Amino acid sequence: VLQKWVNREISNFDYLIQLNTMAGRTYNDLAQYPVFPWILRDYTSEELDLNNPEVFRDLSKPIGVVNEKNAKAVKEKYNFEDPLGIIDKFHYGTHYSNAAGVMHYLIRVEPFTTLHIQLQSGRFDCADRQFHSIPATWQALMDNPNDVKELIPEFFYFPEFLENQNGFNLGQLQISKEVVNDVVLPKWAHSPEDFIYKHRKALESEYVSAHLHEWIDLIFGYKQRGPAAVEALNVFY
């Protein structure tokens, strides 16, 4: 598979799906759901220019420190000594992929809606904590080193999860009073289908093809554990 990918006989998308499968990740287990990277950082421009390296996320860094400002807080957390010596050191107390995160993204689609409601003791979570906007989700990642969710494969092929086709009452945001309905898209996307098309195009772009291995090292490769993980600010609780 690696050789096929290097020879460009399979796409970046296919290679990531294969890697996830070999790593034991599966659509049948929310706790081991396939994980995909955030690949862009421009969610505000009117047009998305895939020839400009500036629009892409730095794939060599864990999502928690893509914003340099967060690195200091992350290092401080790692240097905190557990007085009882029970807890190993870590940079992040949460994970880049977990069941709640999958339900967070897929809240508008069954059976994830029902699973989310069960998780929240029989009701929808408060609207401000829900997945309501792609630009706002990215901004929250940049502002908060404790939020380290990567993406799920659906962001590259499944426009329906961005629409509230079932008409669920997801509440309204506290400050703007905006009703949470379809997911708010980046300015450069004119519809959920357009977002998926451009996002998938970005995944297969030259920039991502040249740097994807750096992210793979963090998630599936040698920077998961040990000294390389410490150096990369990539140690999870």
Largest sheet: none
Gyration radius, rounded: 18 Å
CATH C-level class: Mainly Alpha
| Domain unit count | 1
Give me the strand/helix succession. HHHHHHHHH
User: Number of DSSP strands?
Assistant: 0
Secondary structure category: mainly alpha
Mean of pLDDT: 95
The unreliable regions are: none
Name the CATH homologous superfamily: BEACH domain
Shape, per Cα inertia axes: globular
CA(first)-CA(last) distance: 31 Å
Tell me the CATH architecture. Orthogonal Bundle
State the CATH topology: Neurobeachin, Chain: A, domain 1
User: Beta-strand percentage?
Assistant: under 5%
Number of helices in the DSSP assignment: 9
Proportion of residues in helical segments: 25-40%
GO cellular component, one term: cytosol
Keywords: Repeat, WD repeat
Protein name: NBEL1 protein
InterPro entries: BEACH_dom (IPR000409), BEACH_dom_sf (IPR036372), BEACH_Domain (IPR050865)
Task: Break the fold down into its secondary structure elements and pairings.
Blueprint: H1 2-6, H2 12-22, H3 71-79, H4 99-105, H5 112-119, H6 134-143, H7 192-203, H8 206-219, H9 226-231
Helix pairs in contact: 4-5
Q: What does the model show?
A:
The protein has 237 residues and is mostly helical. It has 9 helices and no strands. The longest helix is centred in the last third of the chain and has 14 residues, at 206-219. It is globular and about 50 Å long. The model has no long low-confidence stretch (mean pLDDT 95). Residues 1-237 form the BEACH domain. It comes from Cochlearius cochlearius. One of its GO terms (cellular component) is cytosol. Keywords: Repeat, WD repeat.
